[in-house]
Sequence to fold (241 residues):
Amino acid sequence: MKRTGIIFILAALIFLGSGCASSGKAALLAQKDPIALVSVVSNEDINWQEDPPQDPDNLSSAIRRMMRSDPDLAVVTKADELINEAESIFREAMSASRHFVLADRERVLQSRSYLNAKEKKYPNRNMVKAENYRFIDYGDKNFSAALADETGIQRSMFVEFNFSKFVYSGFSLSGNIKAEVEMTVIVVDARGKTIYRKTSTVPSLAVTQTTSGLYSQSELKGLFWEAIANSCFEFFDQFEY
Fold:
């Protein structure tokens, strides 16, 4: 195939991709009715991007001494606290947007259709969910229809975070590290049809230090809170333009 033909095909694919994204955005903005936030989940273990997880039971004596001297030092971080913060920040960002109306939280989470919905299974990953939420499957068309029939809410939103950390400057697991937040937002209608989907990745602007994979857990969580806030507010900022 000639070079010009390849360029034409690539340009067409880019155009089609941007067209799909634009149409999804337009469909999401076309209605002003309340949207139910029905799922906020994430990975449980916050691992290194390019290195295997560290085993807390297989640490050097020097690392163990450092951890005993400072309880804030850690080699493993869980997302249990972060996911609740993420849910709160996402709600705040959504409520601040002039384009969206957020359905009442208790009305959604205490509905019969929500409490009786089948939960999604994650066979290969340990996942956590925000407090009082359930692992609802966005592909469950029965749930979407039941929620609409019971509450009148015609659209449901699913948010999945993936939290990770990486060495920004340095070598191996020593140097400056950043937190990174990948966020996928899916919106379905009352028939369970996906009308919008977007995944974005936002690293923290600030860094903290690590030595042989050992870092301040409170400082790392601070990086995640920053990255989560930027991820959520940047997501809703896109609808302003």
Q: What stands out?
A: The first strand starts at residue 35 and ends at 43. The chain has a mean pLDDT of 89. Residues 3-30 form the longest helix (28 residues). Residues 32-240 form a domain with the Double Stranded RNA Binding Domain fold (CATH 3.30.160.150).
